[in-house]
User: Fold these one by one.
Assistant:
Number 1:
Amino acid sequence: MDSLKALCMKYNVKSLYAFGSICTEDVNRNSDIDLLVSFQPMDFGDYADTCFELAEEFEKILNHPVDLVTDKSLGNPYFIESLNKTKTPIYEA
């Protein structure tokens, strides 16, 4: 958990949540890890690079595929409702 916290601090993460099957009894060894991230304010040009780099770092640490979703990409109300049912906090700045 300390390595996740260190990554969050390095990449200016405001909050990080797990959601989806990893937070339910439906999880299995083939499940990816769904993470919802919110960043501290940053330049628009740095945003995409930060997302991709952070996802790669999480996959290295967790040794598992990660699906990183940003709070700014949320728009579908049905997806948001589903996400909120299993959302579990991991990190808050």
Note: The chain has a mean pLDDT of 93.
Number 2:
Amino acid sequence: MRKVIAIVGPTASGKTPVSIELAKVSGSEIISADSRQIYKNIPIATAVPDENVRKNVIHHFIEILEPEDDYNAGRYGKDARAVIENLHSDDKNVIIVGGSGLYLRSLIDGLYEEEIDTSDQRNILYEKLQKNGRKALFYELIKIDPETASNLTEYDTRRIIRALEVFYTTGKKISELRKNVPKINFDVILFALQHPRENLYKKINERVDKMIEIGLINEVRKLYETGYHYKIHNSLNTVGIKEVMMYFDGEIGKPEMLELIKMNTRRYAKRQFTWFKKDKRINWIPVDENTTSAELINEIQKIYEANPGV
């Protein structure tokens, strides 16, 4: 089977620039595994590679959906697998890049996404959420499906409800159903760039300042003024967009908005790091301020050549 490089890890860790340079060297196309870059009209908020970069290196699953479009990790996994298989059939190399853990899991390991109507149970569970809180739902999942719960926290509300609604509708644990998902027909070598925490947080703060400088507020204003809102459209319920809309709603001032974006991005990066650290297949490459792209690419290629794949 062909081998595919996947560069994963927390936001602002340098996945994108390294993947682009590696793609140029290897003649690869990039499969984005980012649950927000897939949406149109929010390139600054989601740090989408600019058009000039994408002219030189082909990217897939970037800015293909409208903010109101319904999409999920299960569909992404199926779609991304199909694109990779088509690229391989044309003898093209592929690099997977992203920090959305569930998208990556769906692509590499598969997710259970049978077309069944779970809406009745979902409504009941959301009522439970309002009445008893997310922690109670999380403990409910721990009792029913500890394997699934072990990969989540009480803050993963949508995923907890998804697992519970499938169980109460089908009588089967989602962790068991996922084991019957077809395997991919290519091997994946996983990499992540590991920065000292203080360095990563500094990069995050600098990135947020840059986003504000190049027009984040105006980007979000265009959505806000045409009726889009993070409380209505889940695709916009993301760091950088939510806080700006809170500012527009008059809930917070501009200085607080800026600090909230930085704080929430750091928290998101911490959750990503915790998620990926659980995956023992990932090759973590230490990075500091003096590490060059050439050094990273050389290390990735060396491990790739020596590794048989997942």
Note: The CA atoms of residues 19 and 97 lie 7 Å apart.
Number 3:
Amino acid sequence: MIDVTVGDLLGHRSTGVRTVESIVRAARRSVAQRDEPADTSQASATDGVNRLLECLDGRDRKVLLAREWAPAKVTQECLSAELGVHPTWLWRNESRIRSRFAERLGEQAHSQVRQFAEDLGGRLGVYVPRSNVESEIRRFGVEPTTEAAWLLLYVAGPYRERDGWFEKIPEDGGQRVDAAVRDLYRTEPMPALSVLTDVLTAAGMRRAVVPAYLDAHGLREIAGVYVPSSAGLSDKVAAVLKANVEPMTADEISTVVGENTSARAVLKALHGNAAFVRTSRTRWTLADREVSAYGGIAQELKNRVADAGGRVAVRALLDDMLDAFPDIKESSIRTYLATLAFVVEGGMVRCRRPEDPWPIVSSLNTVPGASHRSDGCVQLAIPVTTQVLRGSGLSIEPPVAQAIGVAPGLSRDFETDHGPVPVAWDPAEPAAPNMGSARQLAHAVDAELGDLLVLIFDPVAGTLRADGVEGKITG
């Protein structure tokens, strides 16, 4: 109506001069206010928002606050009762009220509010914790719990809070960043912080928010990479080894993993897992690094003897082993060289050949507690130790193994009422010959710690039984 004259309006019936003049003046003032440029150099965000709020119809403002701006939406039923209108009126007019607000916001006079909101949205990103939202709003001189703050968040997003995090609704901020992280972990189970940061910022998150997101979503830093707190110990061990080029011991790994993880638990995770390889007696690394797997002292000795052409000086072999495996003692290596798997002659060592005779084994009566019985069985009295009661394997003397029909390089199962008990004589094993657990046999005759448990081997029938105890060990 800015170009309409008083004369034009007087042409309408029942219209007086004073009324028409008032209408024209009001219309011209409204248009002038709409086209007036905002002074963004001096006014604060609060001033700009308040000026916008003052331009709104009172009922429109209440509807917008209750249904759009406030952190918790008021239901249409409750709001209509508060406004004194029928719920149908609110249902029909709510979208119109939003449209009127959008039109008012788009006026030049309120460009300052639009600019403040755009700046705020840029500083918040698509997903941000409440603490960051509050600090950023205060940077604009607005208190976070005021109507002005809620209006700015609406215009900037809109943003909605869920579980302490504000999400930019039009961009599905929370789902967007969560999906980006899930996709990353499908291809990279142990990403570094830099990789996670790149992925999250590409999804619209502000860089400063990344640490809070990782913490809130259970992504824990271990040795420079991030794994879910719910991940199994094997994944955490893999993360530690990935971050370390050099192989590590179970003690070292458990220290880095933390969370009161024991070295024993780490060893349990390492053993039998194809993702890991043992590189020495105590050290492990990732199998995909294609390093040589440690085969044990005996196998490493055999490999080196073979590489040397079948014979090598003992001293040179010792030095080579100690250099390759610093966590092995020289005394341990010499113990293995003294087994039946090797032959040492004149300071040189070679592997035992099939044609080499086995050393002569002493008679059974040289072993304390061992004897032949008249029925052809072999009797052996063994001390009941904590190892026996725990179920550990037991070393037996070579004359005993020979008497029950187990020669070097062979093994045999002896049947008991509780299942088979193996007896084996591995030429490369310092503790050989040995037998399996005697715990159930000891329990069957109520043997206690310190007793002498009497075992009866039948080499013909291949059976084994406990024949009671012979009293306590003394001395």
Note: The longest strand covers residues 463-472.
Number 4:
Amino acid sequence: MVIANRIGDVELELTTFQQIYLEVSEDEVDETIQEFQAAGLKCYPVGNVVKSLRTCNFCKGELEEGMPVAKEINERTAGKEVPFTVKMAYTGCPVGCGEPLVNDIGIMKIRDKYNLYIGGKSKGKDAEAGTLLFENLEPEALYLYIDRFLAKYQELGRKREGVAKFIKRIGFDEIKQSIK
């Protein structure tokens, strides 16, 4: 309802990353954010930041155990400034409906452990699947490696250099060793 009250003549966009973009005037930004947050909605900046975590919710058998981890990852990462927009995806089973292999950072839950992928790219003639960085992780280790990878990207990534290009320039093995 809070979104409907704000729309009026405003342009609204629903993205593939389960985000809503609203165009509001500069003098209404703070008030709009406060209203949305009071209704339980998260507000993140646009631009070169980590996007909110995209998930799937079709695996009803995996939903209960996996979603708390997905929510924690989102809380820790969404809105962080990075050299170029980072898209993350999470899926609760190996079917991969959340498309973790074609995003900059992908998380796949397999039973009670997590696999972490980096460098997926879904668009362009050089599209490719992400590479398995670490497997069979407990949640705390998963959080740690995601945090370390993002810190390395913040430190060494060039402005407007996507994650896949960053990994190719630095080297997958070098990145893996530096965040281990």
Note: The domain at 54-179 is CATH 3.30.413.10 (Sulfite Reductase Hemoprotein; domain 1).
